[in-house]
Amino acid sequence: MKEFLIEKFLFASSIFSIIVVTLIFLLLFSQGILGFREISIIDFLFGQTWQPTSLVKAEFGTVPLVYGTAVVTSIAMAISVPVGIAIAVYIAEIANPIEKEILKPIVELLAGVPSVVYGFFALVTLATWIQQLTGTNSRLNALNGGLILAIMVIPTIVSLAEDAISSVPREYREGSMALGASKWETIKNVTVPSAAPGILAAVLLGFGRAVGETMAVLMATGNAAVVNFNILDSVRTMTATIVIETPEVAFGSLHYHALFGVALLLFLITFVFNYMAGVIMRRYGRTGR
Amino acid sequence: MNKKLLKQTIFFQIFRMTSALVILFLFVMIWTFISNGIGVISWTFLTDMPKRGMTEGGIFPAIVGTVYLTLGAIVFALPIGVASAIYLVEYAHEGRLVRIINSAIINLAGVPSIVYGLFGFGIFVVFLNFGTSILSGSLTLFIMILPTIVSASREALLGVPKSFREGSLALGATKWQTIRHMVLPYALPGILTGAILAVARAAGETAPIILTAVFFFRPSLPRSIMDGTMALASHIYYMATQHHAINLVRPLTYGSVLVLLSIVLSLNILAIVIRTRYRRRKNW
Amino acid sequence: MPVKIETKDLTVSFGDVDAIKNVSMEIFTNRVTAIIGPSGCGKSTLIKSFNRMNDLVSNVKITGQVLLDGENIYGTNYDVVTLRKKVGMIFQKPNPFPKSIYDNVAYGPRIHGIHKKEILDKIVEENLKKAALWHEVSDRLNSSAMDLSGGQQQRLCIARALAVEPEVILMDEPCSALDPIATAKIEGLIRTLSRDYTIVVVTHNMQQAARVSDYTAFLYLGKLIEYGLTKDVFENPQNDLTEKYLTGKFG
């Protein structure tokens, strides 16, 4: 009897995760959908102006927000992917044991720094460096957000890519070395290609993390909801919009529902990327074979 | 042949420099906070209430708030997370349900923290009418760190050899007795590591608590879980971007960052130490 | 001759693969029965069906009956915990718990509700003696079981199994991880223990079967090919397959 009750409790606990995911989706969907009674989906997805509190004409076009997220994320990925993979390769294949012992925990610490701390660093220090280098007028801009985001995504990519590279079977390497290939040629032609699915999964998860990151980009980018196609101009991401506007929104208003719509969009984007990463990891058993 | 080696050396050095650069970044960042923040750190800074519109005084209520919020989150997340992992590893049979639970956990882990924040806002603050409170914030953080705890516990449980379970069951122990005496004790260090990392993450989270639990300023300590609070992470955000005299309070902000960073990094280091220790001592 | 365990038309399958096919045999009380056969023939699966350890595999399917003292252990009301108390098991690789020697032996009794120190002390001493390990470890009962040699570990596992007062002891290739000297000790122990216990031992080592057992069963591709007194099976095999196996023509 006791055994039976324990099992039921354990079962209920594990079902909890399913319930939460479903609830999150239902809440975002039900609240978001209410907004679409008044905002057309076309306007929401393709509208050029996000002006939810304008007394003259409130507009809920998410293009500037999606643009902000896209620019910042692109900059972050352009840096973090090569750097992250390079570090992963270094840790897995090149570093001597002492370097490894130092590098791995440091990467973990980098992952442990709270995003508000990164945001503050970008706000006070990184922004100054960028301004000194480029002479830009808007101190807080997309480049600043992209750079700090790159640093934040690097640990995700490093640890997952390193796992993938480390689990490439030793025989592959030995086979290549036995044919007279140098260590570098082996890494380039055998090890990394064999780990490619795992590395791809790492990049996708890194991307998901970048899209969803909030505080750092909020504090680093200046939050102007405009599309200027200049990385030295201020941008506003989807995530930042939610943090800035939710505390002040009137409950049940059109604006309230529009914010849930933005969150739904965000949820779906990250869901798709995490799902793809999950499929790749499952199919290749993480090892990259 | 020499050309080959030269090429290899060049690439290896590039990779090594890249790694070094990232380490350097971490140290520069930490140094920035230490050099600018250490000046304001004092016993009174840690134990005093903020004064004069937060331009003077300490950050005691923010520290207390962070402790409450984090403890609240782990109190829920640890039992449910560990229970969930036990079910998945010890009881569940491979099948559809387990696949669905697994993908739910993976997806939860990938949900952006701001989405958790808005979810907590919609469910706890508004729908269940808990208001902006420690309860709402703790529950939100609990859901956010749940996947971390489940994954860490699951890894830890899977690390306990099958022979322990077989040996115990063959002696006529029940399934639960086996789990209690022969599995959980040996998975404990791994579970603990995961829990500490989850606490560290919860302590540093900002966006979810801004939407569910914290105020810009609150003149007194929270008296119940239904009260709102101040918290370190949100305090940093407010002081850095929303305060009416941002430059005046900058030193205090650096100080707060230093405090938060010390707490979070100490927890991370503690987790790393426990894990290495236990790996080294493991004799099975 | 009293029968301890009887299988009736026992079939054990994993997924679509039948590991044991229609095996019917009787195992006699206080005798040593050896189960031999080439690897993959289902030896381990067969003895694991005597204490329902196969239940741990998720896609297992079992038909037929296994009777312990005349009662079907796969019957709906049969309690697995009681069964495993009565039918102990020694595994291929010694699997002491990473606890002290004392706690290893005391684990079973504690699980079954004995907590008095003096009683436990007695149980531990008695069973370590039965397993011929007492004089080697009596002065360091509180040191870790992991520090013992492989052979000592296996004898500790035997003491651990004896401490819950089983009637049957199943041994799944108990010596395959041990050196010849440790093996000899375990074999001697099997002979001694057979006075009080019914023992079923799986082995891939024919000489071992000949040395320790009273009865021998030869299993091939999940089927029981031949079963009888060890002397008869080895000296005068009735089946071609048995003879081929015993003379090393295959496997």
What would you note in describing this structure?
The complex is a heterotrimer of chains A (289), B (284) and C (251). With 289 residues, chain A is an all-alpha fold. Chain A has 12 helices and 2 strands. Chain A has a two-stranded antiparallel ribbon. In chain A, helix 9 (196-212) packs antiparallel against helix 12. The radius of gyration of chain A is 22 Å and the shape is globular. The termini of chain A are far apart. Chain B is built from 11 helices and 2 strands. Chain B has helices spanning 2-37, 43-47, 60-91, 96-110, 113-127, 134-158, 162-170, 175-204, 207-212, 232-241, 246-281; strands at residues 50-51, 56-57. The mean pLDDT of chain B is 92. The two termini of chain B are 46 Å apart. With 284 residues, chain B is mostly helical. In chain B, strands 1-2 form a two-stranded antiparallel ribbon. Chain B has a domain at 61-231: MetI-like fold (Orthogonal Bundle). In chain B, a hairpin with a 4-residue loop joins strand 1 (50-51) and strand 2. Chain C has helices spanning 43-48, 80-86, 101-111, 117-130, 134-137, 150-162, 180-193, 206-212, 230-235, 240-246; strands at 3-14, 17-28, 32-36, 60-68, 71-72, 87-90, 168-172, 198-202, 215-220, 223-229. In chain C, strands 6-7-8-3-9-10 form a 6-stranded mixed beta sheet. In chain C, helix 3 (101-111) crosses helix 4 and helix 3 runs parallel beside helix 6. The model of chain C has no long low-confidence stretch (mean pLDDT 93). Chain C starts with a strand and ends in a 5-residue tail after the last helix. Chain C has one domain (3-98, 166-246): P-loop containing nucleotide triphosphate hydrolases (Rossmann fold), CATH 3.40.50. Helices cover 35% and strands 27% of the residues of chain C. Chain C is α/β, with parallel strands linked by helices and 251 residues long. Classes of the chains: A mainly alpha (289), B mainly alpha (284), C alpha/beta (251). Chains A and B meet through helix 1, helix 3, helix 4, helix 5 and helix 8 of A and helix 1, helix 3, helix 4, helix 5 and helix 6 of B.
